[in-house]
Structures are given as C-alpha cells and as structure tokens.
Design brief:
Sulfonate ABC transporter substrate-binding protein, six-stranded mixed beta sheet, globular, ABC_SsuA_sub-bd, D-Maltodextrin-Binding Protein, domain 2, alpha/beta
Length: about 375
C-alpha cells in the first residue's frame, strides 16, 4: 500500500516541477508589455527595416538617413529603408512583419495597436509635432462655406483624415455629397495639389509640406491644427516598433533613437542645413524637390523632439471614434514603452519623457 500511495505523489511532484520550469521558460520568452528586453537574452539585430514618409513632417527620419546619423549609431546592424505615402500602408507593412520600425502618424499608430489587440506594436518615441492645416481656396472664410465642397485628406483613417472629420462634426457639418454636405475625398498628396490647381477640390487637411504647397499655389489657412490643442502641441509623427523586435533587440532600438536625436539636434543647430538635407532627400525619394519658399514655411510650422506627447493620446483615441475611423475607443494601456527613449535622453543629459500612465499594461 505504501508503494502505491508514494508513486502518484512522486509523479505529481515531478509534473509540478516540469510545470514550474515550463512557466519560467515561457516567462523568459515573452517579456511583459512595457518592459523592453526584460526577462530574456537580447542582442543587436542583424538588420533594421525602417519605414518613413518623404514629407517634411518626417524630417528627423529624412535627415537621420541622409546624413548617416541612424546608420552610424546602428554600427554592424544593416539599415534597410522603405518610404510610404500614408500611415495605413505602413501599418500593414508593420503588422505583416516586413518592417521592424516606422515613423508614422499618431492615428495610424493607434490603429496598429488596436488591430493587433494591443500586441504587435509599441510606441517608443515622438519625432514631430504641429505641421497640419486645413488649407482652402481664398473664397472660403468660414466653416459653413465648405458646404457643397470637396476637401481632401491623404488616406482614409490617417491622422489628417481623423482630424478633419472630427472638426467637421464639431462644426455641425455633415460628411457626404450634396449642397449641404462636405465631401471628404482621400487622395495622394500630389494629386490633391493638382486637383486644387484645377479647382476640382476646394482644399485639404494636409501635413507639411503639402499644406505649404497648396498655400504656395494660392490657398489660405482656414484651420491651423495647433490652435485646437493645449499649448499648440499635438503629435504629428511618432516612432513605433514591432513588439517582438523591441523585446529581442532593445539595443538596436536605442541606437535608432540616438540617430533620431542626432538628426533633431542637427535641425536645431543648423536650420539651413536641415532644410537643404530634407529637400535633397525628398528629391531623391520622389524625383522632385520642393520650392525653397515651401520648405521655409513648412519648417516654421513644425517642432521636433523625442517626446511622444503621451498625454494627448487618450483624446486622439476618442477622436478616432468621433471621426468613424474606429468603432470603439481603443484601450491604450501598454501602448507606450519609454524605456529606450529615456535611456537615450538621460545619456544625452536631457529630461525624460512622461508616458502618462500608458506604459502600464492592463491586468
């Protein structure tokens, strides 16, 4: 009897030990959200696949790549870049695993987090604030005069699309077709400029340099988005990273952020050089340089820094629902991981950024 009673007990003890070991193994394989690189062995990545836009709002990326700031910080890690015209396309690349990190608008960043149920990406830093405006033909001087007109945004659900639709609803303007409604048309930015010149669209809610390009073509500013936010600050471009990449290669993410900070410091120390570098990069990527007047105006509309302005994101999540881009407000707990950016800022003698509590996962 004693033998039969001891065998199950021994077996249970062995199984329990195996369970503990398996649990420890799983914990080491999957670091907790909001804690980059915790709980496992990490190493620099062999390659970093980085996305960004050929827009002035992405100047830290343009300059960071063009001047070699990012590649220099990455060292032996190969830098591979890809450019996009709007955020939703870049989100698909990130969620599909063909990108590791991307400079992107705030609304698509939220959308990527929501689409992956809070799993696939983390917001790790800011890049650019400001630089978005509703620019229209000069005969339009009030919101009501937009009735019966067509206004462009870069892409359905992108940052400017959400901002325009929220603003229209706040001004009791119905979106749709007809003399009492405002038609919102999603167009590539160069197409918007062409159609504005021929009078086929009345304007657009656009990022730089495209708002400045329409102004250069005769448009006037009806709404500067900075006037809609406290202290005139809202995140136009942020940096997001695939969660798995961040967990496995936090050193590479830190190197990317050091390169971005070098680009931001360069903008501050040599504005003329920064404008030239940005414009040359845009010419290389698109085949056409911007007029100097457009570049000059665009840079006056923007501010650059690694602070993601985390406290604005709950409002941005609400705006996505108001604009119809999301069916329900995204729970942003665990959205941010500021570990890497605060290491970089501390090393540079700069103050840390505030995650506004969004670095803490639910549960």
């Amino acid at each position: 009897m004693r033998l039969r009673s001891r065998v199950p007990i021994a077996l249970l003890a062995a199984l329990a030990a195996v369970g503990v070991l398996a649990s420890c193994s799983r914990a080491s394989e999957t670091p907790a959200a909001g804690s980059s690189g915790s709980g496992g062995t990490t190493s620099p990545a062999a390659e970093l696949r980085l996305g960004y836009f050929p827009n002035i709002t992405h100047a830290p990326a343009l300059i960071g790549v063009d001047k070699g700031f990012i590649a220099g910080e990455l060292g032996a890690t190969k830098l591979t870049t890809q450019t996009f015209n709007a955020g939703p396309e870049e989100v698909n690349a990130l969620l599909g695993g063909s990108l590791d990190a991307g400079f992107i608008g705030s609304s698509p960043a939220i959308n990527a987090f929501a689409k992956s149920n809070g799993q696939a990406i983390r917001l790790v830093a800011g890049s650019t604030s400001g630089g978005a405006q509703l620019v229209v033909s000069t005969d339009i001087t009030s919101p009501d005069q937009l009735k019966g007109k067509t206004i462009a945004t870069p892409q359905l659900g992108n940052t400017q699309d959400v901002a325009l639709k929220k603003w229209l609803k706040e001004n009791n303007l119905e979106i749709g077709q007809g003399p009492d409604k405002v038609t919102v048309q999603n167009l590539d930015n160069p197409r918007t400029l062409d159609l504005f010149k021929t009078g086929q669209v009345a304007g657009g809610w656009l990022p730089e340099p495209w708002s400045s390009r329409l102004v250069d073509a005769g448009a006037s500013v009806l709404v500067d988005e900075r006037t809609l936010w406290p202290n005139g600050q809202f995140p136009t471009t942020v940096l997001i990273v695939r969660t798995e990449f961040l967990q496995q290669h936090p050193e590479t993410v830190e190197a990317l952020l050091r390169g971005a900070q070098k680009a931001i410091d360069y903008i501050a120390s040599d504005p003329a050089g920064a404008k030239t570098a940005s414009n040359e990069s845009i010419k290389t990527l698109t085949g056409s340089a911007l007029a100097p007047t457009v570049v000059d105006r665009a840079f006056t509309e923007l501010a650059f820094g690694l602070d993601p302005l985390a406290a604005t994101f709950p409002q941005l999540a609400k705006d996505s629902v108001t604009a119809g881009a999301q069916a329900q407000e995204t729970n942003l707990q665990g959205f941010l991981d500021v570990t890497a950016v605060n290491k970089v800022l501390q090393a540079a003698g700069k103050p840390p950024v505030d995650a506004a509590g969004l670095d803490k996962p639910t549960g």
